[in-house]
Amino acid sequence: MRSVKTAILISGHGSNLQAILDAATAPDYPAEIALVISNVETAYGLMRAQNAGITTVTIPHGNYPSREAFDAMVDASLKTHGIELVVMAGFMRILSDGFVHEWQGKLINIHPSLLPKHKGLNTHARAIAAGDTEHGATVHWVTLELDSGEIIAQSSTHIMAADTPETLKQKVHALEHALYPEAVKKVATGMLITKKNP
Ligand code: GRF
After folding, report:
1. What is the CATH number of the domain that holds 79?
2. 154 strand-pairing partners
């Protein structure tokens, strides 16, 4: 069965990367994880990828004079490896408009809130401060406006009185590990169907 050549972009721990790598070992999973790119040399996710036998590329953003120059390296690396789908999983860089234009429709992200609520950082503390009773994670298409692209999938949990930003973070992470592999599956399946029926 043909699968979609997929790259995962990370900056850190890579627990979502791990969840997708694990799901992708199923023979009928429609995405092949062909490349992992990190902008941080010490990202633990690089080790996870190497343990799974996946090609890794480290592109330290500090080595580049501008956001565009860094993004051009990421773009070149994706193209060199024939990547069709780009999955951002804890990639802590805002991408330039040029890069997003180039990859729009093939670029997805996971955000730790129930979008459109709480775009940006510190989502768990902000959900508690806002008095929300529900919180969660969203997988969405990446567009020029931060955390605003069309929603692909969401998963939610209740906020309890005893919850702190740290306990919520852990709950949301657990949701993400089920949500993201399923969302990647859905997107990759859609891509394969579209290709079969031009
Ligand atoms: C996740 O909570 C994700 O929503 C956010 O960054 C975190 C990455 O965690 N974008 P990990 O590196 O996958 O463990």
Report:
1. 3.40.50.170
2. 138
**177 catalytic per annotation:** no
**Cβ contact 56:78 at 8 Å:** no
Neighbours of 183 (CB within 10 A): 24
49 is in which domain, residue-wise?
4-111+139-154+181-196
Q: Is residue 73 part of a domain?
A: yes
Which atom of ligand 1 lies nearest, measured to the CA of 89? 13
pTM over 0.70: yes
Q: Is 134 exposed, middle or buried (0-12, 13-18, 19+ CB in 10 A)?
A: exposed
pLDDT digits (tens, 9 = 90+) for 56-86: 999 999 999 999 999 999 999 999 999 999 9
Catalytic residue of the set 13, 61, 81, 111: 111
Torsion, Cα 22 140 44 78, to 10 degrees, reads 90
Ligand 1 touching residue 111 (CB < 6 A): yes
Q: Measuring from atom 10 of ligand 1, which residue has the nearest CA?
A: 90
Q: Is 14 in the pocket of ligand 1 (CB under 6 A)?
A: yes
